[in-house]
Structures
1.
Amino acid sequence: MKSWSIGVVGLVALAVFVASSYGPTEGLVAVGILASAAVGIGWPHFLAVPAKKTLATVIGLSGAGSALAAGFVPAPGFLDATPAFIAAGVIAVFVVQLIRGTGQAQRLESTLGSCAGVLLSCLGAGWIAGARFNGIKEMVLVAALSAAVALLAGLLRWPDRVVAPLGIVAAGLVAPLAGLVFSNIAIVAAIVVGVVIGSVLVSFRRMVTLRLGRLNFQAVLGMGVAPVWAVGALCYFIDKLLIY
């Protein structure tokens, strides 16, 4: 599959996350579990590492547990359980590598890459926490619009040295405009959200351009969902630090 299809998958996933945030919490949690499963299945394929099924299970279950906790723990500690699920997932990754034994192919790459996958899968619970935080959805919408602009910039078939600053600047400009139109979020806070989210997403585009070989459907699915899902934590923490 073509690399631009990753951006399309990311846009679809982003739309689903935002739409779900305006429904009941249970629906958003269900979407979070599916997103974690998508990251778990696709991330090992994108990395092209061995033991894909086992690592997919570890990554997916870690993210699903984090999403469940974020949806049902009492306020205000929506993400209090997330570090525990990250730690459990990382430990499980090391256990898998120990079981594989010494001398196995791509052992270091598999360990480091899978730990990163666990982190991405668990951080997506921030979308759920952001939707529950004070019951206010404006920051979720502002963050989503910023992410959408960065993803659209990533679809351009231009060099990374052009697309990267373009995506960051565009996301940083759209965020305050969206904040003024859809809410009373402070301009500075909105700019921070846009720039940070834009920077993260264009960084993942660089990972795609550096990867050699063709991408199968699982790799496109995982790489399309993972960064969009993970920036939910950025949205939530910036909301708490700069607005609340």
2.
Amino acid sequence: MNDWHIDSDGAQRCWWPGDDPLYQHYHDTEWGFPVADDRRLFEKICLEGFQSGLSWLTILRKRENFRAAFAGFDPEQVARFDDEDISRLLTDSGIIRHRGKIESTINNARRALALMDRHGSLAAYFWRFEPPEDERPQQFTKAALCANATTTTSSALSKDLKKQGWTFVGPTTCYAFMQAMGMVNDHVEGCHVRAAATAARAGFHPG
């Protein structure tokens, strides 16, 4: 079986988006492309935390609801959320109503502000963890990527975040975040997006 397949729109993609148009758009325009914007980085790591135990497509379909519920993932605003906001979010059927994950997002917003004060931006902090070439999958196959759900670097990022008080940031979640923010380009060989993501990284500077 190929690690890619030709979808209904005629494009050759990684196997995982299937024929869902929303998933395909995410795969083609976001996943694996480098991000330096702090609000987008905060959104991505929070949504990866919400995804824990669920499918990413479930989160993707609710993403606009999450954005509305969490003030566009502005860390300064989310950091001010209180018990009343938690109660509001627990009744919001448009998001994942998991108290632990909701409280984690608020906590992590406060931790994010501390990181921004210390490093100047979330981008400056996160991009310090870009993995060395020899840690990245060499063949970019489905088997290689599944085996790399946790890496030395994602474990190091997880450990450092937890040390600073972040929650729902285990090594697997951190590796998914690294893929989503373009720190690693895990589009498989044969995927039509792989070259575009590689070119985007070549011209990218975290700032």
3.
Amino acid sequence: MIQRQEQFEREQRAARLREAQEKSGLGGYRKLAQRFGWNENTVKGHLQGKSSFGTVAGKQYAKAFGVSFQWLYHGTGNPDDIDIEPASIIDVPLISMISAGHLAGHEGITDFSEFPTVSALDLPEGDWIALRVEGDSMNKISPPESIIFANRRDKRLVHNACYIIADEQGNATYKRFRSDQEPPFQPASYLDIPPPTLTGTITVIGRVRRSVIDM
């Protein structure tokens, strides 16, 4: 009974996949494989219902064909429905700027279990830390008491992007990168605040991707 039910669901899912593929006008399994870098035999098996596909492949097909994943995979709703993704909430360690400076060393902090955490909604994938902003040097973007979220996996310097950085002495700060200025890490303030005085090699701890403040 279970096998017959699984076969029925696989065939129904394949039928919806074929419907979406035909309406998309993107061609058969060979053209689809070439266009999206998929395996020809895998796509063919899914379209013919000879093999089943999971949620990851289902979301890829739904995006490629411009249809609702819920309709394509589960058979609920209509093809042109808009999928509502459930919100993801993660707890991010809330560290001090002093602790951020320690991250620049070879023996930096690896265990964040003793730090308090702050919840963040729908952050993209990354290695996140949170810090509470002190002072007015970045008040155009982050007023005092703001909480900023920095991705430690994102260290590529981009003009006008904001970063947590530290110098050779472990002094950490939050500044905006201006490739056309010297020094390149500058305040973003309504006040006349000079750039930080940093010593030696500058280490990027992570790029700040979000700034929030309670009202």
4.
Amino acid sequence: MSSQLGKVVSLILIDRFGPVVERVGTSLYQFGSSPLLHIKKRTDLPISKIKESLTILIKYQLATFAVNQNENIANYSIDTDKVLLMLRYPKYINIIKKKFGDSSEMIVEECLQRSYITASEVILKVHERLTKNEESIPLSQLKNEFISLVNAKYLIRLPVNEAVDKPVPKLVEQEIHTLPPVDVILLQKFKAGEAVLLPDKDIYWHVNFDRFHQDMRDKIIISAFTKKFDENAGELVKILLQQMYIRTDPWADVTNPIPILEIKDLARKQKNLGQLNAFFDQYVNVIEQDHSNLIRKSGEASGGSFQIYLKDAYKQFAWELIEQCVMEKFDSKAARIFRLVKLKQYIEPNMIQKLVMIPAKEAKRLTYQLYEENFLHIQELRKQAVGGGGPSKLYTLFHIKLELVARMILELCYKTLFNIMTRRNHDKSTNKRIIDKKQRVDTITLGMRSQGAEEEQLAEIEEMITPPEKEIIARIEKNMKKLNSIELEIDDTIFLLQMYLMYN
């Protein structure tokens, strides 16, 4: 169990739900699956507060429950992965905005805020928000956008209770992608205040995080090939990944064969890929020969077929990420030693000093420094002397356990994430008075502007904040923006390492 992850989970829960929910969530994290009375004993909270906290955690899919040995009691567990995903919500919203537009972005935003919601309710809420913003979009268009999100599997149905007659519910997924029965005419009547019964009042929808993670996974691969070669190579990989979904489970280690002629035809249909079409075979050869091993030929007939090796690709990405970490944490000489050990797999210390082209004393220091920081590992071998007499000889070999190193860096990411969140909370609490004053002034200014106030009146209100306070606010905003940016970048590293560990 990761102590750093527990600290991050605690900060996320207290920031979004308050101290009571945080105490319940932390108890579940520390002690694992527990029934209600055990949680009460550990947290010393009233049963009513614990039930309320568990309701909130389960509603937002941050906790799960299962039947105890006593079938009348449920055991509750915290889902740390789902808690961490709350930091990733802005990325999900940004993905939808780029692919589907602003109104679809609002639909997903409402689903994330409410955790689950009916199709009719989210359509009405988004329509109301757009109306307030003086944007006019018909309900029928919002319905079509909701259906597009369902068809693209970004939204799925909430599981239903199968064990209706039992004390502990049993949730099962049924027809998760079946389109919702939304009636636009009934929605218009409902919006007008008429008493109508909406046909989907008991059908709830929630966000399918897996679908977003597939997009994020593909984006990393496409970005890697775009940076390494050019945009045409990235577009070729993008088409390959799109065709993967037609033939193969999205999370398979290796895809089913994809005919290269099919990829070629799809590339020809896109008018902006003239250079890719002109040098298609050369781009395929370059990507096939790349050491990431993303694609490999699986047949020769009709131009051949290719398979995508996602597991091997993410293993290579993990190697490159760790090498970059060694470079940043130590220096280029340490990175050279790390790459040599990776190349040789197992190597003696004296061979490192000979091959790495660094002074022996410095090479030895860096090697053992990498060992102390858990980037390198030692394997000791004993060789019996010839004839069975005399002492056995001990060989020390350096090697790298990639999975252990990846988990170590993941732990460092959690520690950094905790430090960033703590620093941000400290800045907010230290400057709470000025931040609250700025928010009050902004609220008053916004209200008066909507009432048609003159610029002189607005300027007088803004003068309530003195120049020194404005400097402090500017500095706070700059620091907050920097911390938020770092948080998103660390989440990218966490996601890449999680992908490697999942495939591994």
